[in-house]
Specification:
The chain is mainly alpha-helical. Helices cover about 60% and strands about 5% of the residues.
């Protein structure tokens, strides 16, 4: 590790101001989005986290195939369930309460992840100012802001990844720090299996350094976390490593993930350019300059990126765990540049320029389309990526507040593109668009389009959708109702 660069008192004060402001603004924006946006990027943010957590806490909820066949472990839903339960303990038992808490905590974790980028850059010798500027590329950039409040495994695992590597890979790390870092990476794998790539990277870097004691310690710690992974599956799904085996067979052996679309190798570069061009150029260029100072960290980050780029099925969210690493590398690369400049306004201006690039990206976040994010590119590329399905979910909230509701059919969209019971929050049947006919008597409310309202009373409307109370007093019991997500 290179010796710390020279920092003047003025530059030190500026660095602290930049760090506090970027983290504060980033946290504020994330919490605001958590409380105001009811849209969906992809159904996973509901049915792999919020919905199974709702079922754990409240006893009912739709079940996606992953939690029927056992393709996911229960760590992420369990953590979300703990947040929901905590919200009920303080009296926030409505969806607005427990969803606001859950999404708000995820947003704050995103801001903490930006701090992790700062800490990681500092561990590799970057000055406070360079590290703060690098962290802004995650704290304020459009893509991390967009995803921050969403209850996705990629979001949940980004924080332990950056903190874990910051502890375990830092030059001169103590044995205790190495063990703690490996433990955080083990937790990240429980949250998202693909984070095992970071564990392999950690062991490879330690071996390349010939730091055999650290490598042995890390291997032992990771083996312990692997045992915990297997034991959790044994207790919940009935066999060791059940979720990992089902998931890998589905994706790698059967290749069924391709059903949700495939993309060429250059997909991630193209989408990052469209969604945040300035941040991509600055972070990429500065990361290259960090190659000599942090070769191991750089190879781990690039390796994670390349493995995902080589997979046929791609989604931008898959890169979220590695973005804070590139922000840290950018901080290290910026420090390489600043070392060649004496303390001066020009030096400070260069660092602030990086922050401005990040800020401009964040300012543009509200203009993001699904095409910018590489999602639904052949269906609605020009549609706003914000609040998609928001009107549907707010009408689900309205339906759940109707005292006489005894069944609801969502005719307007597929149930997968709704908030499910996490928003509806009533222990009554929730039917898909292809469910029973209105004349079946199994439900007394429908969520449909204006033109399909039909007989009944429109009790709420938003955008192209309406909530209609059918002209019947109650519901006929449906013994064949299934909780499985169709």
């Amino acid at each position: 590790m290179s010796p710390p660069s020279t920092t003047s008192p003025t530059e030190g004060l500026l660095a602290r101001v930049v760090l506090v402001l970027t983290l504060g603004v980033g946290a504020g924006l994330r919490v605001y989005l958590a409380l105001t946006d009811d849209g969906l990027y992809w159904p996973d943010e509901i049915f792999q986290s919020l919905e199974p957590a709702h079922r754990l806490v409240f006893g009912y909820g739709l079940r996606a195939w992953e939690f029927i066949e056992g393709a996911r472990n229960w760590v992420l839903p369990g953590l979300v369930a703990a947040l929901m339960k905590g919200a009920t303990w303080v009296g926030w038992e409505s969806p607005r309460g427990y969803l606001g808490v859950t999404r708000g905590i995820f947003g704050l974790m995103g801001a903490a992840t930006a701090w992790g980028s700062w800490r990681l850059a500092r561990a590799y010798g970057a000055s406070e100012l360079a590290a703060a500027a690098g962290a802004s590329l995650f704290a304020l950039a459009a893509v991390p802001l967009y995803f921050a409040p969403r209850a996705l495994s990629e979001n949940a695992s980004a924080l332990p990844v950056v903190l874990g590597l910051g502890l375990a890979l830092a030059p001169g790390a103590s044995r205790r720090e190495g063990v703690a870092g490996a433990s955080l990476l083990g937790l990240a794998v429980l949250l998202r299996l693909q984070n095992g790539l970071f564990c392999v990277g950690l062991l490879a870097v330690l071996a390349a350094r010939r730091d055999w004691r650290a490598a042995r310690d890390a291997l032992a710690v990771l083996a312990g976390w692997a045992l915990l992974f297997g034991l959790l599956d044994r207790l919940t799904w009935g066999s060791w490593f059940h979720s990992a085996r089902v998931y890998l067979e589905f994706n790698l052996v059967q290749g069924k993930a391709a059903a949700w679309g495939t993309a060429p190798f250059e997909y991630y570069g193209r989408v990052l350019w469209r969604s945040m061009a300035g941040v991509t150029v600055v972070a990429g260029g500065l990361s290259l300059l960090a190659a000599r100072r942090a070769p191991g960290l750089g190879l781990v980050a690039v390796g994670f990126f390349l493995v995902h780029a080589l997979q046929p099925h791609k989604e931008l969210r898959f890169l979220l765990p590695v973005l804070p690493l590139f922000a840290a590398l950018a901080g290290v690369g910026l420090d390489v540049v600043l070392r060649h400049l004496p303390p001066s306004p020009a030096r400070r201006g260069l660092a602030l320029g990086v922050v401005v690039v990040a800020g401009l990206s964040g300012a543009r976040a509200g203009l993001l389309t699904f095409g910018d994010l590489g999602q639904y590119e052949n269906v609605k590329p020009r549609a706003s990526a914000w609040d998609d399905s928001g009107p549907i979910n707010r009408l689900l909230l309205a339906a759940g507040e109707r005292e006489d509701v005894c069944g609801l059919k969502v005719e307007a969209v597929h149930l997968a593109w709704t908030g499910g019971y996490s928003y509806f929050h009533r222990d009554v049947p929730l039917y898909a668009h292809n469910g029973p006919h209105r004349a079946s008597g199994h439900f007394n409310y429908v969520l449909t389009g204006h033109q399909a309202a039909g007989p009944g009373e429109v009790v709420a409307s938003e955008g192209p959708y309406v909530l209609v109370r059918l002209p019947r007093a109650g519901c006929v019991a449906d013994p064949g109702f299934s909780w499985r997500l169709p």
